[in-house]
Amino acid sequence: MAAPHFFSAGTMKLQDIGRRLFASALLLQGGGAFAVNQSSTSQGDPKSGEQVYARCMACHSLTENRIGPEHCGVFGRRAGSVPDFDYSPVMRAANIAWGEKTLNQFLADPMKYLPGTAMVFAGVPDQKERADVIAWLKEARPGSAACPTRSKR
Predict the structure, then answer these.
(1) Are residues 75 and 133 in contact, defined by beta-carbon separation less than 8 angstroms?
(2) Minimal CA–CA distance to 5: which of 102, 129, 89?
(3) Which of 17, 47, 118, 140 lies most in the core, judged by the most C-beta atoms within 10 Å?
(4) How far apart are CA 35 and CA 45, in angstroms?
(5) Using CA atoms, how far apart are residues 5 and 35, in angstroms rounded to an integer?
(6) Which residues contact 5 (CB under 8 A, 6 or more apart)?
(7) Which of 137, 98, 93 is nearest to 116 (CA)?
(8) Distances in Å between the alpha carbon of 79 and those of 71, 132, 152?
(9) CA dist 76 → 29, 61, 140 (Å)
């Protein structure tokens, strides 16, 4: 039985159309470098990303290990390095630091990006949803509202 696919391509939102029109206008006026940056992963919407992340919570949490490792502070963290989580050998051996590019590639198709990963999830095929969840994860740092500092036990 195949794993359920929770993500759909969806339709283009009016906000997305406006951004593309704005970027096109900048290109026509010679603002090409700015327009290219507008389409980068870093332009995701953290608020929408939080909604996308809700789908990940079947296996993940920001503040505790579940079926998958906690995600608080994932940016800049080496893959396979959360204490007290039993990673697959492939993930432990991966020489990956999680950032916009690596998260974007991994979330697009985890099993293709890292064959042998224990994350049996079809991925997030929609680029906008990936950009949004990545923007939200980028804000989920220890001590942030999403990741309150835990007291020592």
Answers:
(1) no
(2) 129
(3) 140
(4) 17
(5) 32
(6) 122
(7) 93
(8) 11, 21, 24
(9) 36, 18, 12
